Amino acid sequence: MGKTQETTEKEYRLGDLIDIFDLWKIDVTNQDNQKWCMSLENFTDQYMLSYISDKNIGPGNYLVSSHITEPCLMAALTGNRFRVARLSTMNGLEDGVWVDRIPYFAFRIKNHNLVSEDYLLRELISDRLSEQLENVAKTNEQAHKIDDLIDKSDLLNLVIELPSLEVQDVLVKNDILTLLQDLMAEKQEDFENYQKDIHLKKHAVGQTLFNLNNWWNTLQKARAEHNGTLDDKIQVGKLRPISVGDIYNRISESLNILSNQINTFTIGDGMETEDIALAPFISEYMATHQSPMFKFEFDEMGKYAVEDFKIKGEVVLHKGDPLLYLVFPRQALTQIFDNIVSNACSHGFSGIEDKNNTIRIEYNSIGSTCIVTVSNNGKPLQKGMSEEKVFMYGGSTAVGTDGHNGLGAFQIRNLMSRFGGSATIECDDNATYPFAYLLTFHNCISYK
């Protein structure tokens, strides 16, 4: 009979398995002169895809607090879970890698006869370790270093169960196979979604052209019936009479809808990223987009420096300057806000225009990630609508009403995704603000 693999697992303290680097700490500094810079988005919960190289990182608009000059493994703590990264080689990264102010530690395996690199990273992101972290990790939304979230002794006392190296290898290979299958399925799903997306866009454009053609034929009919003379007050049609003036308006609306539909094929093209001071952007947007239907609400408390911010003795941020900057196209951010406001008016405030309608804007950041929440106190999300339907191309329940084309939320998600962010919604029918958009930006500069 063949030999069976040893499956007995033995417990080890993390401190028995790794040596933690004493990182080269540097004064918080601007990123202007650093070529390779890592932020929280470079850490992943897919340990097999955790390799860092000059191909997947580059210059970033971050503040940095440490510098790595030799190969190592890395783990960042977010919530009660680790995300991992690995610098297996410094080829192409000869100047080293600078790391944003995030709670992470760098380490090296002590004994490769006990644990493989892959398996150790696998365990660091596991649910078993997350359960241990729940008992020892601290809550600190302003954490910029690992010591802010977990004591070094607690970190090294985390327990990992190790099978034999042979079993470790089998488990890792199974994970690789599962990942490949998932990636293939995801690729197929992306292709199907692309086909669906193009089909929906083509269908929507065709429908708009059909409607436009009908209005044009109606206008031609009116022209023929009145010997080539048209007056806005002339009525056309016996069953559903409509004035020539209204026909002009419908043609104009159809052309606007068609223009917006065509623009979605190349949404975001030509837009360039820049450093946007977020608080002033929001204040300026509110000032220039006042409406009798609603008011804006935005608390500026804590959004500006209360004193000069110095780096190596040099003032880089003056008292009164904004503390948070997004690296994002200004045109795209304006379009996203426009669409959110438009959707609030078309859905949340429709039929209750005389109420105390409010659009509230707020944001918070952790490291280089910022979440902007835009909510309104209007009507809750309509029954039967889901997040998928909200962001679907032409998925609005108000399509065709007052020129509404159902592309607002679709554009929001696509613009966010196009420039490295994401968009979701949050609904609570019983809340004062029952509907909100959550915009997540992964490339921001925070001075707090």
Low-pLDDT residue spans? 1-5, 397-405
Number of strands: 22
Beta-strand content bin: 15-25%
Mean pLDDT score: 85
Report the principal-axis shape: elongated
What summary fits the major beta sheet? 5 strands, mixed
The value of Rg in angstroms is 28 Å
Tell me what you see in this structure:
The chain is of the alpha+beta class and 448 residues long. The chain is 34% helix and 23% strand. The chain contains 10 helices and 22 strands. It has helices at 14-17, 117-124, 127-136, 152-156, 165-225, 244-263, 278-288, 330-348, 387-390, 408-418; strands at residues 10-13, 18-20, 24-29, 37-38, 64-68, 72-78, 81-87, 97-100, 104-109, 159-162, 235-236, 242-243, 274-277, 295-298, 309-311, 314-317, 324-328, 358-366, 369-376, 422-427, 435-441, 444-446. The strands form 7 sheets. Strands 14-18-19-21-20 form a 5-stranded mixed beta sheet, covered by helices on one side. It has a 4-stranded antiparallel beta sheet with strand order 2-9-6-7. α5 runs antiparallel to α6 and α8 (330-348) runs antiparallel to α10 (408-418). The N and C termini lie far apart (65 Å).
Question: Short summary of the structure?
Answer:
The protein has helices spanning 14-17, 117-124, 127-136, 152-156, 165-225, 244-263, 278-288, 330-348, 387-390, 408-418; strands at 10-13, 18-20, 24-29, 37-38, 64-68, 72-78, 81-87, 97-100, 104-109, 159-162, 235-236, 242-243, 274-277, 295-298, 309-311, 314-317, 324-328, 358-366, 369-376, 422-427, 435-441, 444-446.
